[in-house]
Amino acid sequence: MLRSRTKSSGLLPRSVLFVAFFVVVLGQRHGFAQPKQPEMALPTLSVRITGFDSILGESSNPHLLIEEFDKSQLYPILPYIFFSENSSEIPSRYDRLTHRQSNTFQAEDVHASSPLDVYHQTLNILGRRLKDRFPSTITIAGFFSNDSVPNVAESRAKAVRQYLREIWHIDTSRMHLVAGGLPTNASTMTVQDGVEENRRVEITSDDSTLMSPLILDDTMRVATPPILRFYLGMPNPAPKEWYFEVFQKNRRLFHTFGGAEPLEKPIEWAVIAQKDNIPTLDGFLTYRFQTVDSNERSTSTEGQFSVEILTLSKKVRLKMADKEYDKYSLILFDFDSSTLTPKHREMLALLRQRIQSDTVISMDIRGYSDRTGSADYDDTLATRRAEAVATGLGVEDLRKKYMFNLSMKGLGKDVPLYDNDTPEGRFYSRTVDVLVERSVQH
Fold first, then answer.
1. Do 381 and 339 touch, CB atoms closer than 8 A?
2. Same domain, 340 and 404
3. Is residue 356 domain-resident?
4. Is 41 inside a domain boundary?
5. What is the pLDDT of residue 266?
6. Looking at the structure, do residues 391 and 408 belong to the same domain, yes or no?
7. What residues pair up with 47 in beta bridges, in sequence order?
8. Interior angle at CA 10, CA 8 and CA 11, nearest 5
9. Which pTM does this prediction carry?
10. Same domain, 289 and 323
C-alpha cells in the first residue's frame, strides 16, 4: 500500500532525493554553476540633431556657428521704486551699497544682462548723477494702493530719501518730499497687478539728465542656428529614467532629464540663452544620452557635432567684413497706452541722430505688452506701440534715404520680455525694442 501511494502520488524514492539534496548543497559550497535565466539585451539608443530658426525653419546636420559682434545698448531708467503691501522698506531686489562702495560706483560699470539689471541699480545711478550734477534737485513722491498702514505713502518717500542721504550724502535740501493716494498715471485698480504697481515712489526732476537712458557697450554673441533640437530614440519598453547632456572638454553646457513618461517633443537647447554656458572653443561638442531601466541597468550613447567660434579678434585678424548692432529699449509706455510723451519724443530724436548713416543694413522694430488683458488685445496694443515708434522716428523717410531693410511687428503676452510677476517686469514689458544692424569693415 505504501509503494502504491508513493507511486500514485509521484513521490521520488528517498535515495534519489538524498542525491539531489547533496548535489545542490555541494554546488552551493563549491560554486558549481547553476542554470541562469537569459537576460534581456540592452536597448540601442539613438539621437538625431537638427537646427531650428524661427524664420528659416528646421535644418538637418547643423554646423553650429557662434559669432561675436560689438553691441551698443540703450537702457531706459524707470524712475519708480515699488513696495510691498503695507511696507515702506525698500525691497531687497534693489541693489544697495555701503557709503564706501558708493565712492567707486560708476553707472557705466553696471553689469547688465537685461534692462532689469540696470533698473535694480536705479537708486545708485541716481545717487551718482546727483553727486556729479550739483545743485540739481529731485522730487520724491510716495503713493499707496489699498494699504492699511497710516502714512505709508510718506514713509515710502522718506525711505528713498534716507538711502540717498546716508549712502550718497545728498543734502535733504535737494530732495523735496510729497505724498498722495494713487499716482497721476495709475495702473488699473481692477486687477491685483495694477494694485501692486501703484504702491510706489516716483522720482522726478527738472534736470532731465538725472534719469536719462544708460548706454552700455558690450559684446553680443549670435548662434547660427539659434536653437538645436535633439530627437531622442527611446527604447521600448520606456526606461525608468533618462538623462541627456552636451559638453565640451568636460565643461557641461546643457543638460536635462526625465522619467518614464513619453517624450512627445524634441529637446531644445537655446544655445546663447545662458551666458555662462556658451561654447568658447572651436572643434566639437559632445552629447551623451543615457537611460536606466526598471532593473537598474544603464545604457548610453555618445556622439559629436562641430562648432566654430568667430570672435571679434579673429575677424579683425582675417580682415573680414563685419557687422555691429545697436539695441534701443527706449520707450516705456504707461499702462494700456501707446501714446508718445514729450520725454519719449526726446529719446526718439536722440535715436534718429544715431541711425542717420549709410552703414545701416537693417532695422527691426518690435512692440511688446505685459500680461494684463486678453491675448488679442495685447497683440493689438503691442502693434500700436511699434507703429507709434516707427512714426516718431520717421523710418520711412530714413529708409528711402539710406536704403536699409525694415521689419516691424507687435508681440503680445505670448512673448513676455521679462518676469511679469514683479511690477517692474510688467512696466519694462510695455516697451518697443529697436535693433539696428550696421556694416563694419576691418
1. no
2. yes
3. yes
4. no
5. 95
6. yes
7. 232
8. 115
9. 0.70
10. no
| pLDDT at site 157 | 98
How far is 171 from 190, CA to CA, in rounded Å?
A: 39
For residues 376 and 415, the model is more confident at: 376
Residues 6+ apart with CB under 8 A from 442: 315, 316, 319, 320, 321, 322
Residues 7 and 62 in one domain: no
Question: Alpha-carbon distance 270 to 19, whole Å?
Answer: 69
206 and 81 co-located in one domain: yes
- Contacts of residue 239, defined as CB under 8 A and 6 or more positions apart, other chains included, come to 43, 260, 291, 292, 293
Q: What is the mean pLDDT of the chain?
A: 87
Rg value, the chain, Cα: 33
Instruction: Confirm whether 184 is domain-assigned.
Output: yes
Judge whether residue 415 has pLDDT over 90: no
Residue 84 shares a structural domain with residue 208: yes
Residue 35 binned pLDDT confidence (cut-offs 50, 70, 90)? low
Other Cβ atoms less than 10 A from the Cβ of 190: the count is 9
pLDDT at 86 over 90: yes
Residues 127 and 11 in one domain: no
Tell me the three cell numbers of residue 265: 517633443
Q: What per-residue confidence (pLDDT) applies to 11?
A: 44
Parallel, antiparallel or unpaired: strands 298-310 and 360-367? unpaired
Give 439's contacts (C-beta < 8 A, 6+ positions apart). Answer: 321, 322, 323, 359, 361
- Say if residue 293 is in the same domain as residue 343: no
138 is written with which cell numbers?
A: 529731485
pLDDT confidence of residue 41: 74
Identify the domain boundary among 279, 311, 343: 311
- DSSP states along 392-439: HHTHHHHHHHH--EEEEEE--TTS-SS-TTSHHHHHHHSEEEEEEEEE
Kindly state the cell numbers that stand for 365: 522694430
Phi first, then psi: give them for residue 381, nearest 5 degrees. Answer: -65, -40
Predicted confidence (pLDDT) per residue in 41-83, tens digit = 778 899 999 999 877 889 998 999 999 988 888 888 999 999 9
Res. 243: pLDDT tops 90? yes
What would the grid cell of residue 332 be?
A: 516705456
The answer to whether position 380 is within a domain reads yes
State the pLDDT at residue 36: 57
Domain that holds residue 65: 46-69+221-311
Judge whether 331 and 344 are in contact, CB under 8 Å: yes
Q: How many distinct structural domains can be found in the chain?
A: 4
User: Pairing between strand 138-142 and 200-204?
Assistant: antiparallel
Place of cell 497683440: 379
**End position of a domain, from candidates 293, 311, 329:** 311
